[in-house]
């Protein structure tokens, strides 16, 4: 009596794991035949091998917006494996096939890694070029961005390394002047024009060609990896449109990143390549192993962090992560990182844009500001999750959500108008983070590095930043404070727009700005108050004690941790991203603090919050079930419900069976001995019954409306003039999962999580009482948390 999704086809797939129901073969199967749902019964071999012979379209697959049966899929894979192993000694061809089957896993993750690395390199190069297009164009070579355009120029000076005759701003091209109010207004206008053009093109492509290409994609990938089916979410159209619109969205200057969507892009590659290998294309559980490896490759190329990618897949997105998936994820991340390094999109011969080298150690006292940055990260995370979810809920429930193009244009216009006057918000967010992470040295021309040299009082870029700050540093601090407020507000409204939008980079930017402000404040404190006991021990006058860039790095990790609630994988990603291996302890302290502070306001991260908002049937393994309810409190039917819809094992006719199917919308029916005894025999799925009846009518003569249907091994005794009976034992799941009515819900929830069940039958002394489905559990958990139980259902 598993209830169907409102938006879905009411049929669920056949539970035997095969691809056909050859009903004409049923009578000669003999008494050794029994059905298995992964219980490990030896007799399941006959059944599965019978069913794998002639596939009938539609059987053994799943409908859209349904959950897969993990137990059945694993059983199906074991049978396939046994079959291949039993045949491999028969001939050289069979042996080759078995080798191909064994290697197909490594082959599919290699292809996924290659495609992910290539696409990430392409996206990085295209986004950089289009981002610079908002400010000007390279006359000597149109396809060069600003930095590449000035590489070959001999006219650049150290102070003005970004100015070269080959690069022209739009004001120079249109008005013929580089300075003055007219040129500023022209550049301002062109900046807004390009930002709106890119945003408009991105949202139109998403709306028309691939609605699933919007957002970050990580909440949906988590749900898909838990066993939910969303057809087309990882398809070729989604991949193509997401790749193009991701470049446009990043270039439009919206407060978003490309890191989350790159995980979606990598998973699309994994899904598409898995169709080349029957081992993965015909088994949904095996396909999810490939998707776990693909998500690791996605993070690997997004941050240039292969080990962080594997840990991200393990900690954040994967539901089922066996050891061989860990090795394959590691290999996919390695291949993807290698391809990206070969493409060298940043032109610095490194995997990452943010590579930094700090030359000073950190001191124990500095843990206090690091922990304070952790507190800020946790507070920002909690605030962001609440504000963003409230806005997304409002978007869903009001008319505003019906105009996604208008919303994107409005947000892009506000972002462009406010961002242009401030150099820190005008530039690409990744470039901003790089500047904030970078330590001040003799090669830095940033405003953040204007210190007065103690030798003659003139402004110089010295090796020693522990000196009094110039007015340039103070004006930079004001601009950073304004940039921080701007980023906080715009990120809340941008995440959830109908364009590809990642959250990693905006969160890191917010943390890096806050961290750099704290770092400069600490540095000036150490300079003016070096005789304080805090600084006296370890900071000599004129020595290089405090590194503001390190504070920016710690702040970035803390804010990202506050929003996503990642811990281990985040620390590894950040130290791979920056190369700052000796700063692991400050990073760990800040990330753990941000998680604790964030958890004090609510335990779920932004991805779990969006899963709940969208009503996906996701049982989070991290969430504890602490209530003392029993199975009988949750099962259906309840007191007010109609009785449980059941089938009897040998006294229904085809007409009566069809009437039960037509009058109900349940996805399956328990089969019992008789209405009087209520003893449980098994569980039959609606889809299987329908297909079996149609098949029998087409291929067996004498099946009529008054034909008797039986689920037993032997036909019941019938009068001589009765029409031919219909045997449906082959589609009966003889080992459905059952619990007693006194089983604590704690254990039931654990069974559902760990075995990936869709339904579980409730018995009392062997008599059938009711049924618990995954949705009943989700409703019950929502009720216990004082939420509307119906609001969590997928729509």
TrEMBL record:
Which GO-annotated molecular functions does the record name? ATP binding; chloride:proton antiporter activity; voltage-gated chloride channel activity
Q: Kindly list the residue ranges recorded as spanning the membrane.
A: 103-123, 191-213, 233-254, 261-278, 290-314, 363-385, 405-424, 476-497, 509-530, 550-575
Coiled-coil residue windows? none
What's any one GO cellular component for it?
synaptic vesicle
UniProt xrefs under Gene3D superfamilies: 3.90.1280.20, Clc chloride channel
- Pfam families linked: CBS (PF00571), Voltage_CLC (PF00654)
Enumerate the subcellular locations listed in this protein's record, separating them with semicolons. Cell membrane; Early endosome membrane; Late endosome membrane; Lysosome membrane
Q: What does this protein do?
A: Strongly outwardly rectifying, electrogenic H(+)/Cl(-)exchanger which mediates the exchange of chloride ions against protons. The CLC channel family contains both chloride channels and proton-coupled anion transporters that exchange chloride or another anion for protons. The presence of conserved gating glutamate residues is typical for family members that function as antiporters.
Quote the protein name from its UniProt record. Answer: Chloride channel protein
């Amino acid at each position: 009596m598993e209830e169907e999704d409102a938006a879905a086809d009411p049929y669920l797939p056949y539970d035997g794991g095969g691809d056909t129901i050859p009903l004409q073969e049923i009578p000669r199967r003999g008494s050794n035949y029994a059905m298995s749902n992964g219980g490990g019964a030896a007799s399941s071999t006959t059944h599965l091998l019978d069913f794998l012979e002639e596939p009938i379209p539609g059987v053994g697959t799943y409908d859209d917006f349904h959950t897969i049966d993990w137990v059945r899929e694993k059983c199906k894979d074991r049978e396939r494996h046994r079959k291949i192993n039993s045949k491999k000694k028969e001939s050289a061809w069979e042996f080759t096939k078995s080798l191909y089957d064994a290697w197909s896993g490594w082959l599919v993750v290699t292809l996924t890694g290659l495609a992910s690395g290539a696409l990430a390199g392409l996206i990085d190069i295209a986004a950089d070029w289009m981002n610079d297009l908002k400010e000007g164009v390279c006359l000597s070579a149109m396809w060069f961005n600003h930095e590449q355009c000035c590489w070959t120029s001999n006219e650049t000076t150290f102070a003005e390394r970004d100015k070269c005759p080959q690069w022209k701003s739009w004001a120079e091209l249109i008005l013929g002047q580089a300075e003055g109010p007219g040129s500023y207004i022209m550049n301002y206008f062109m900046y807004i024009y390009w930002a709106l053009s890119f945003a408009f093109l991105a949202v139109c492509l998403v709306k028309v060609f691939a609605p699933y290409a919007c957002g970050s994609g990580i909440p949906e990938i988590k749900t898909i990896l838990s066993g939910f089916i969303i057809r087309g979410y990882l398809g070729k159209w989604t991949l193509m449109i997401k790749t193009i619109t991701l470049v446009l969205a990043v270039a439009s200057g919206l407060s978003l990143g490309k890191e989350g969507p790159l995980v979606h892009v990598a998973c699309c590659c994994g899904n598409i390549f898995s169709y080349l290998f029957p081992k993965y294309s015909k088994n949904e559980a095996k396909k999810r192993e490939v998707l776990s490896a693909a998500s690791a490759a996605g993070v690997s190329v997004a941050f240039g962090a292969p080990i962080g990618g594997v840990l991200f897949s393990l900690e954040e997105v994967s539901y089922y992560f066996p050891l061989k998936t860990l090795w394959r994820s590691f290999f996919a991340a390695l291949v993807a990182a290698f391809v990206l390094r070969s493409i060298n999109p940043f032109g610095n011969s490194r995997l990452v844009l943010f590579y930094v080298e700090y030359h000073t150690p950190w001191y124990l006292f500095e843990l206090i500001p690091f922990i304070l940055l952790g507190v800020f990260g946790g507070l920002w995370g909690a605030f962001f999750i609440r504000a963003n979810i409230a806005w997304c809920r409002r978007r869903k429930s009001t008319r505003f959500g019906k105009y996604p193009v208008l919303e994107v244009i409005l947000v892009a216009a506000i972002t462009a108008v406010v961002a242009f006057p401030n150099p820190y918000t005008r530039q690409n967010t990744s470039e901003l983070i790089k500047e904030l992470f970078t330590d001040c040295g003799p090669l830095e021309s940033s405003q953040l590095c204007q210190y007065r040299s103690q030798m003659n009082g003139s402004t110089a870029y010295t090796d020693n930043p522990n000196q009094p700050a110039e007015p340039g540093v103070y004006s930079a601090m004001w601009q950073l404070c304004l940039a921080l407020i701007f980023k906080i507000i715009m990120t809340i409204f941008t995440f959830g727009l109908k364009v590809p939008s990642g959250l990693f980079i905006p969160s890191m930017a917010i943390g890096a700005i806050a961290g750099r402000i704290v770092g400069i404040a600490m540095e000036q404190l150490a300079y003016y108050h070096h005789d304080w006991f805090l600084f006296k021990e370890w900071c000599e006058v004129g020595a290089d004690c405090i590194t503001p860039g390190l504070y920016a790095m710690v702040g970035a990790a803390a804010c990202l941790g506050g929003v996503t609630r990642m811990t281990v994988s985040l620390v590894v990603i950040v130290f791979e991203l920056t190369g700052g291996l000796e700063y692991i302890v400050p990073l760990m302290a800040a990330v753990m603090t941000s998680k604790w502070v964030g958890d004090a306001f609510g335990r779920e991260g932004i991805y779990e919050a969006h899963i709940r908002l969208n009503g996906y049937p996701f049982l989070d393994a991290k969430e504890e079930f602490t209530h003392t309810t029993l199975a009988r409190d949750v099962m259906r039917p309840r007191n007010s419900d109609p009785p449980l819809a059941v089938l009897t094992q040998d006294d229904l006719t085809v007409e009566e069976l069809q009437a039960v199917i037509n009058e109900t919308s349940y996805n399956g029916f328990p089969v019992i001995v008789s209405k009087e005894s209520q003893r449980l025999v098994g569980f039959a799925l609606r889809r299987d019954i329908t297909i079996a009846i149609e098949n029998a009518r087409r291929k067996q003569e004498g099946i009529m409306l008054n034909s008797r249907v039986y689920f037993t091994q032997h036909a019941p005794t019938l009068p001589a003039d009765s029409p031919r009976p219909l045997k449906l034992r082959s589609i009966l799941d003889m080992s459905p999962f059952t619990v007693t009515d006194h089983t604590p819900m704690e254990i039931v929830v654990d069974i559902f999580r760990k075995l990936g069940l869709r339904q579980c039958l409730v018995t009392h002394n062997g008599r059938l009482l009711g049924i618990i489905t995954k949705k009943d559990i989700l409703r019950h958990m929502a009720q216990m948390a004082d939420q509307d139980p119906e609001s969590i259902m997928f729509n």
